[in-house]
């Protein structure tokens, strides 16, 4: 703070040190040359233009202008000293020169030089004096003064009187420096000889050439009146507030005349009263009361001096002086004059940025003219006094357009009067947007679904992101973040609206879910962005029919059932799978066709085929069953399988029961060899299946994607699906050719052999 205060003092000292003084004769033409500021400051005109030089006159009217290209100061209009400074001996106009980069204030003044452009003027063209013929020589009679608004040698200098045999003229000067004339009686008047005298009074100024004004003096010689009116005081001094209302009593002058009749009746009248005072006061000729007739203004005239004459009916007169001192009251509110104003600033403007420059002026005097400025409300701005009565409006904190886009700043200037007056100047400052906000999605994760086998380019949802900035900084565009993986190309997003589309038909059995990242980018420079995840769940449709794993083949499979099988005997298990999911994969089993419907029953949920009753001797030896497998999709899909069942008394004739021809018998050694080969194949297949399962697990861990559906095998030995546990599923290797290569496995039986 001490450093800032020191720099401010240096700036003010330098500004005060560089003062410009010029003079200009009044009544000069418009755009008259006043002075060359660039030459006086030792600056090139280009420097003035670069530093945005401007001139601001004090007061509400701008009287001077600066040509930045030449650095010449000119008067904007013809100046009349008598109008600008009516009550001042010297007329000096002040202005301030403002320079930017860096900020510099230079005070200047222009003295308006008086020229002799006004002639002396008498308030009345004819003055009438009634003088007794008994008036003794040497008597003096004050005359109405002529008014000349010029100053110095151009003002009123002397009076002269036309030649006559009775009167001479004496010129005197009042305390305020104005000259007035007194008519001096040199020789006794004689009414009978000459009742009326006409004299010519001339007032001349000291200009070159001089100007003059004349008035007629008409002297009426009266009969004798030996008593002159007498005032109680020669000088009446009055203090009067400037806000005195019209009609208020100022003073009451009183003169007494001991004569009787008309010679003792006194009449009062103003003499030697200026034009301005004549409009402000009125005198009752009967009572001598002086009252306020107009509006007093301390700022225009601080004192008024009036001469009052008292005349009796015989023409004798007396004079007194009334001096009125106008007391200042706080009747002028401070005036705020805006010099420069920045209508908008960027929201990233640093603190202490200058927004406006203005001055405060109060026309009152003393404490009534002292002012202070504050900012109303809680806004991030502060006022800094600079030079004289100038203030700078600066920011004092960081701005955020998203919080407040514009400020209505109320600057209040208040004076120090007993009845404090104030005025308010309101400034609008807009905060320009800067791209400081990234787009924000309404959700971090968007979850949508789509039915499989969809049409390409179908809309499945939308994403939405908003940017708190404005204009192009708030314009958001969307794009899919491309990553590795074939499913990444399945989705697309509309650049403007954020609508999400599926580009191709999806298959639930291949891809159950998709996940992509969508980026939202604004239009700022540099651009800001944000990302969100779009998860697409593929809904399964019933587009896959059940697949029967057992019994397999087109011709079905054969099963052997002993004739001693009781009711509930497990004949076979129908195993089927459905590539769909959920309800579409729920399977039910039923017998569509049977040779003897009452002998077998099929479990609708497990697919187990059991005997419905005990097998009888009368039952046919061969049975053919058609099993129908149906899912629960809409519409449902189904598959069928055929089972050939042979009823046997002994398993030795199993081969003959299952075929239509009688194959040759084979030795037991060949069957044993085949059994060993089959076991070896089963072991090798088991090892291969385990290794394949391990490789698939490792592959799934690497991909980290949605779990794919299993690939359904075409044989029972390649799958672990179905209703049976793995321990009850056996791998069978059958060679093509003769029936001697067939191998049948029968489930465990608990037969009850007859004795």
Folded structure, characterized:
The protein has 755 residues and is mainly beta. It has six domains: 20-113, Cadherins (Immunoglobulin-like, Sandwich); 126-222, Sandwich (Immunoglobulin-like), CATH 2.60.40.60; 230-327, Immunoglobulin-like; 335-432, Immunoglobulin-like (Sandwich); 440-539, Immunoglobulin-like, CATH 2.60.40; 547-648, Immunoglobulin-like, CATH 2.60.40.60. The protein is 10% helix and 39% strand. The strands form 15 sheets. It has a four-stranded mixed β-sheet, covered by helices on one side. The protein has a four-stranded mixed β-sheet with strand order 8-14-13-10, with no helix packed on it. A hairpin with a 4-residue loop joins strand 4 and strand 5. It is rod-shaped and about 190 Å long. 25% of the residues are buried. GO terms for molecular function: calcium ion binding. Residues 1-19 form the signal peptide. Residues 20-122, 123-231, 232-336, 337-441, 442-548, 561-666 form the Cadherin domain.
What is the level 1 CATH name of the largest domain? Answer: Mainly Beta
Unreliable stretches: 1-17, 655-667, 706-755
Task: Give a count of the beta strands, DSSP E runs of length 2 or more.
Answer: 49
Mean pLDDT level: 82
Overall structural domain count: 6
CATH architecture of the largest domain: Sandwich
């Amino acid at each position: 703070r001490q450093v800032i205060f020191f720099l401010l003092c240096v700036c003010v000292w330098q500004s005060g040190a560089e003062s410009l003084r010029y003079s200009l004769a009044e009544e000069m033409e418009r755009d008259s040359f006043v002075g060359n500021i660039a030459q006086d400051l030792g600056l090139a005109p280009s420097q003035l233009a670069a530093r945005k030089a401007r001139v601001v006159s004090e007061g509400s009217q701008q009287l001077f202008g600066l040509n930045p290209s030449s650095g010449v100061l000119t008067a904007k209009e013809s100046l009349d000293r008598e109008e600008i400074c009516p009550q001042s001996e010297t007329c000096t106009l002040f202005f301030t020169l403002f320079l930017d980069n860096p900020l510099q204030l230079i005070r200047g003044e222009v003295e308006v030089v008086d020229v002799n452009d006004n002639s002396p003027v008498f308030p009345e063209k004819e003055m009438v004096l009634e003088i007794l013929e008994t008036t003794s020589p040497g008597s003096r009679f004050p005359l109405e003064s002529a008014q000349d608004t010029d100053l110095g040698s151009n003002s009123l200098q002397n009076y002269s009187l036309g030649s006559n045999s009775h009167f001479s003229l004496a010129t005197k000067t009042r305390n305020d420096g104005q000259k007035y004339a007194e008519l001096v009686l040199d020789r006794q008047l004689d009414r009978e000889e000459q009742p009326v005298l006409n004299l010519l009074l001339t007032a001349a100024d000291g200009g070159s050439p001089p100007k003059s004004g004349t008035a007629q003096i008409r002297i009426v010689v009266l009969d004798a009146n030996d008593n002159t009116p007498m005032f109680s005081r020669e000088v009446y001094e009055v203090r009067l507030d400037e806000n005195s209302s019209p009609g208020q009593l100022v003073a009451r002058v009183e003169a007494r005349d001991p004569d009787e009749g008309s010679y003792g009746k006194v009449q009062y009248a103003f003499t030697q009263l200026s034009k301005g005072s004549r409009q402000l006061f009125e005198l009752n000729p009967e009572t001598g009361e002086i009252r306020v007739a107009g509006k007093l203004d301390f700022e225009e005239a601080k004192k008024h001096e009036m001469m009052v004459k008292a005349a009796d009916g015989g023409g004798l007169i007396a004079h007194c002086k009334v001096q009125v001192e106008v007391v200042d009251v706080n009747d002028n509110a401070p005036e705020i004059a805006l010099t420069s104003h920045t209508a908008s600033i960027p929201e990233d403007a640093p603190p202490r940025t200058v927004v406006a420059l203005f001055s405060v002026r109060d026309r009152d005097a003393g404490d009534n003219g002292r002012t202070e400025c504050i900012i109303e409300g809680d806004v991030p701005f502060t006022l800094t006094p600079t030079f004289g009565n100038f203030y700078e409006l600066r920011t004092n904190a960081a701005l955020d357009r998203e919080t407040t886009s514009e400020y209505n700043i109320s600057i209040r200037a208040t004076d120090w009067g007993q009845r404090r007056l104030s005025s308010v100047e309101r400034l609008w400052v807009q905060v320009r947007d800067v791209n400081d906000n990234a787009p924000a999605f309404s959700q971090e994760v968007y979850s949508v679904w789509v039915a499989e086998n969809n049409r390409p380019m179908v809309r499945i949802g939308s994403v939405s992101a908003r940017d708190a900035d404005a204009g192009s900084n708030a314009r958001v565009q969307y794009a899919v973040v491309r990553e590795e993986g074939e499913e990444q190309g399945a989705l697309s997003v509309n650049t403007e609206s954020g609508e999400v589309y599926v580009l191709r038909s999806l298959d639930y059995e291949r891809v159950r879910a998709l996940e992509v990242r969508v980026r939202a980018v604004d239009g700022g420079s540099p651009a800001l962005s944000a990302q969100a995840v779009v998860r697409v769940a593929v809904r399964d449709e019933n587009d896959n029919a059940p697949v029967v794993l057992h019994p397999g083949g087109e011709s079905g499979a054969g099963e052997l059932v002993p004739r001693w099988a009781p009711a509930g005997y497990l004949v076979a298990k129908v195993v089927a799978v459905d590539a769909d999911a959920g309800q579409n994969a729920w399977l039910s089993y039923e017998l569509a066709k049977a040779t003897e419907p009452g002998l077998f029953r099929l479990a609708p949920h497990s697919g187990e085929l059991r005997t419905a009753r005990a097998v009888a001797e009368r039952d046919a030896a061969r049975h053919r069953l058609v099993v129908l497998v149906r899912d629960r999709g809409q519409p449902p899909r189904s598959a069928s399988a055929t089972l050939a069942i042979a009823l046997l008394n002994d398993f030795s004739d199993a081969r003959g029961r299952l075929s239509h021809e009688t194959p040759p018998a084979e030795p037991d050694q060949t069957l044993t060899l085949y059994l060993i080969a089959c076991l070896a194949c089963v072991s090798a297949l088991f090892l291969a299946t385990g290794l394949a399962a391990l490789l698939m697990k490792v592959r799934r861990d690497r991909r980290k994607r949605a779990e794919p559906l299993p690939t359904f095998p075409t044989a029972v030995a390649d799958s672990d699906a179905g209703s049976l546990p793995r321990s009850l599923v056996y791998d069978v290797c059958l060679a093509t050719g003769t029936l001697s290569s067939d191998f049948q496995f029968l489930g465990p039986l608990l037969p009850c052999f007859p004795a």
